[in-house]
Design a protein that fits this description.
263 residues, 8-stranded antiparallel β-sheet, Jelly Rolls, Arc Repressor Mutant, subunit A, 2 domains, 10 strands
Amino acid sequence: MPDFFEKHRDDMACTAVWSSQKLKFLPHYHSSVELAYLLEGSARAVIGGKSVTAHAGQMLISGSYTVHSYQDDCMNAIVAIIPLAETPSVQKQLVGGVFQSSVISDEDGTIKQLMEMLLKYKDDAVMRKGLSYSLLGYVMKHADFRQTGSGIKSGAMSDVLRYLSENYTQPLSVESIATHFGYSRSRFSHLFKANIGVSIPRFVNILRCRDAAKALTQTDLPVVDIAINAGFNNAHTFYVAFKELYGMTPGEYVKRVESKKEQ
């Protein structure tokens, strides 16, 4: 199971693009912009805390440091991950703003053409960089990209996400996190939701549930111990958060994983 924060995406020096018949990933984030253009079928996703569905001829858009997950694997798509290093002239804009739309339609075939060209010329550094800029420019315009004016600088938000990823097993409260970064509770809650798309408690619960899901399938510890080790106060809180994230109980999750292993 990959880390919630995909560090390898932040270490990328150039755009990665590939054809995919699977878009099924648990919640994650990175500084790169992630684009998925559907050639066939449909895909459900949660991007910035909002549930969306894209169909053939549409593109899913996940902005820099936006938490996103995909829930379907019966489709055909071209996926592109554009790191900040590939398009430095718009880097500050990308980490300081938000795409108002997570799904856009390819009305005139421009997106398909750009994505197919990017796939074709992925090993040509000059073409790849130029097409990455063209894609971002088109998407920023048609997905209504706006600066948040939130008051949290891009580097600081990255620090917040890393801090939570490193400390989610510890007792955390919105107030203690806000104080750590020098904000009032209400102000920090607003800024975090505006930048990430989900509330702080929801974000922390996602981190804890992912930790617990791994322990459920790799250890023989009792569920209550797994819940406490992941940072939950009790088993009940863990069960509620786990079912909300995975759509099933911890026991059902273990059975599904074991069934897949047997297959």
